[in-house]
Amino acid sequence: MSDPTPHARFTYRRLTADDIPAAQRLSAAIGWPHRREDWRFSARTGIGFIAETAGALVGTVVCWKFGADQATLGMLIVAPEHRGVGIGRTLFAHALDELGKRDITLYATEAGQPLCDALGFERCGALDQMQGAAFRPPLVALPANERLRPLGTSDAQQLVALESRASGLDRSHVLPPLLDLADGIALDRDGELLGFSLFRRFGRGFVIGPVVASAFPDAVRAKALISHWLALNEGALVRIDVPHGHGLREWLTGLGLARSETVVKMRRLASAPADGESSRADPGLHQYAVIAQSLT
């Protein structure tokens, strides 16, 4: 997209660093907890578009490219007083135009699902947003010879590889800047990296994610990686976004985290998948918690 294009009395252009304060105020106005720092991370790693009227920012969307044929989309916000006039659809169109012929994945709220349905997205999963501040996680016993250890500077390349395999998306340009913002713990077995989890400030508290680990019965490895952060942060507001299918919602509820929202995972394929190919994710690795809903 080159020059700003008009839509009625609205104009659309790329998000810049100067727009971050206004974008954060817009997200806060609809109850989203994102800080300016959270918006800066989105702008640094993704490509955003905004809608303006009379010099005021009234809509946003951000998209992320993962390699030549994969992408995610999120942060679609329209000011309540300007809804119903096509701003969301136009912002969505700018993002889709930017992404070109890529497979696109997103998480949609109940309000956003009709637009996604109309644009050819299909439902393929769901995610629970869990959060709380009063929790006392039990000690999780790991399999023999496995241990948790702090992340080292030499782990970065392996972390990118693990997260890319678990998510099915090339994380080489997203994970390194995330590591600059987060603390991390690794799951190790005799020098082999089996998984990891990150913990960082987000919104009004902290977020755990991603959580990546080799598959194991009862998600024991993931539970150990999550319990580590909960035990260190009793009394702090902690959020974790967990995809359905791993049985963690009930376990987290038992620890004192409550489900605050459930969103639907949706995907639009640029072309039909090859026979037998439903996902690029490694079935031996699981992403038990996502980086962020926008980044799936």
From TrEMBL:
User: What Pfam families does the record tag this protein with?
Assistant: Acetyltransf_1, Acetyltransf_18
Ranges of residues in domain N-acetyltransferase: 10-149
InterPro entries named in the record: Acyl/Acetyltrans_Enzymes, Acyl_CoA_acyltransferase, GNAT_dom, YitH/HolE_GNAT
Top-level taxonomic group: Bacteria
Molecular function per GO? acyltransferase activity, transferring groups other than amino-acyl groups
The alphabetical list of record keywords is: Transferase
SUPFAM superfamilies listed in its UniProt record? Acyl-CoA N-acyltransferases (Nat)
| PANTHER family listed in its UniProt record | BLL4206 PROTEIN, SLL0310 PROTEIN
Instruction: From the Swiss-Prot or TrEMBL record, give the protein name.
Output: Predicted N-acetyltransferase YhbS
